[in-house]
Amino acid sequence: MGKTIIKNCDIADFDTLKYDRKDILIEDDLIVKIADSVPAEGNETVIDAAGKMALPAFVDCHAHLLQSFYKGYMDDYPITDWLVRLFHAEDLATEEDNYYAVLLSCMQGLRFGTTTINDMGGYRFIDSTVQAVRDAGMRATLGVSHTDVAENDATPIRTVEDALRESNDIYTRYHGLDHDMIRMGVAPAGLPACSKELMQALKAFANERGLVFHTHLGEGKKETQDVKNRTGWWEAETLYNYGLLDERTLLAHSIWLQDYELDLIKKAGANPVHCPNTNMKISDGIPKIHQMLQRGINVCIGCDGEASSSTRDMIREARAGAYLQKAVTLDPTAMDLSSTYKMMTQNGAKALGYQNLGRLAEGYKADILLVDMSKDISLTNRSTRLSNLLYAGTGHAVDTVFVNGRMVLSGGENLRMNTGKVLEKCEELLYKLDQKMAKL
Ligand SMILES: [Zn+2]
Question: Three-state DSSP class for 2?
């Protein structure tokens, strides 16, 4: 891939909230040098950042990429009806719908500065999911959403053997593809729809191969109570007692938790994922993120599926999450700027098991954002850029994106894909899907 020098970028420091004008030298997929000046030797691509702010790219820790095609179709539904409607809607999708829905999700993520995504999807269309993620140039961990307990009439029921066979199939065919850009994980949907046997079998499978275990935790109040009635324990406590919590476990939502369960999560080193837009929009509730951070728990952020959150913009997602915490705790220091930016980057990278991702430092993966605040009059003041981006901005301020050393976005334009053509194709497919959805 060769060498690239990014000159004159203001590298943001998430601890001090200050900026340092530097050059960055990228060789292949890595940041190899950050210095006041990196002289060009003639064989590099040189990009003048002209004072744009440089950030590590965002890590979106909870997604259902197919759902970009269902955005707007189940708004204002209660969670139980929402889920049934979603299962029926997903049955209507074709392989081509899936490919373009996943591609659209990834392209939105990249547009707004996300280069790494953790997806929980379906086995039926895994081939087109992998293809779309690869075509988009996104770094991803993909798991299949397995369920074996009927939470409602529409829950897809798989056996433990099915789940292991499918997990092994995708692992064998796809794990580590494209120099480790594509990883497989396991993703049992969550305790309300999964047996102890299923969860433990998938965790053992994941542990033997060093994979991520990704699940929903304590999302619905009623569902959490149902699990308590079934197992005798609250959800995090159940996972802990089943031996499923450790550093490679990601826990989407993590809302309905007792205080002592936060201690179990901390003890195990597991990783809650804050998904505030979904939590608000489908009235799931508000997680104890501030208390988690105070305990030193590695909390991450995820935009979830767009059928619930309606966004793949990590800045909007993180802002919603931070404001919620400040409001519910009556404490303006809750989810402060420094914590929130780390949740969006290095915490997510750590949870997903990447050793050298999520920071701008020598030896780290060159997943870099250049943010241009000059085109949005509401973001004025170079001295408070980190603050203004999170509290006043959106992902549209992202100008340039590098993934694994390669520039995929410049001037806000996707360099890999023809955005206009992709959107045209999506509209064509969505028109057909809309006719099927009308009959739901
Ligand atoms: Zn989810």
Answer: coil
Amino acid present at 128: S
Taking the centre of ligand 1 as the mean of its atom positions, its distance from the CA of residue 68, in whole angstroms, is 13
Token pair in block for residue 333: 């220091």
Residues of the chain scoring pLDDT < 50: none
pLDDT of residue 1: 64
CA 10, 345, 240 angle in degrees (round to 5)? 160
Measure 98 CA to ligand 1 centroid, in angstroms: 17
Q: How far, in Å, from the CA of 40 to the mean position of ligand 1?
A: 46
Q: How far is the CA of 217 from the centre of ligand 1 (A)?
A: 9
Interval between CA 270 and ligand 1 midpoint (Å) = 17
Distance in Å, CA 215 to ligand 1 centroid: 8
Q: How far is the CA of 327 from the centre of ligand 1 (A)?
A: 24
The count of residues in the chain is: 440
**Amino acid in position 362:** E
Interval between CA 35 and ligand 1 midpoint (Å): 41
Chain centroid, CA 345 distance in Å:
10
For residue 273, the Cα-to-chain-centroid distance in whole angstroms is 9
pLDDT value of residue 128: 98
CB contact at 8 A, 230 and 193: no
What is the rounded distance in angstroms from the CA atom of residue 91 to the CA atom of residue 437?
10
Write down the pTM of the prediction: 0.97
Q: What is the pLDDT of residue 80?
A: 80
Query: How far is 314 from 113, CA to CA, in rounded Å?
Result: 8
pLDDT of residue 79: 80
Q: What pLDDT, on a 0 to 100 scale, did the predictor assign at position 100? A: 98
How many angstroms separate the CA atoms of 94 and 109, rounded? 22
Q: Is residue 76 packed enough to be buried (19+ CB in 10 Å), middle (13-18) or exposed (0-12)?
A: exposed
Cα 136 to ligand 1 centre (Å): 22
Provide the H-helix boundaries in 78-217. 79-91, 95-111, 126-136, 160-174, 177-180, 196-209
Distance 189 CA to ligand 1 centre (A): 8
Ligand 1 centroid–CA 58 distance in Å is 18
- Give 71 Cα–ligand 1 centroid separation in angstroms: 14
Q: How far apart are CA 371 and CA 411, in angstroms?
A: 10
User: In degrees rounded to 5, what are phi and psi of residue 241?
Assistant: -70, -25
- Alpha carbon 205 to chain centroid, angstroms: 23
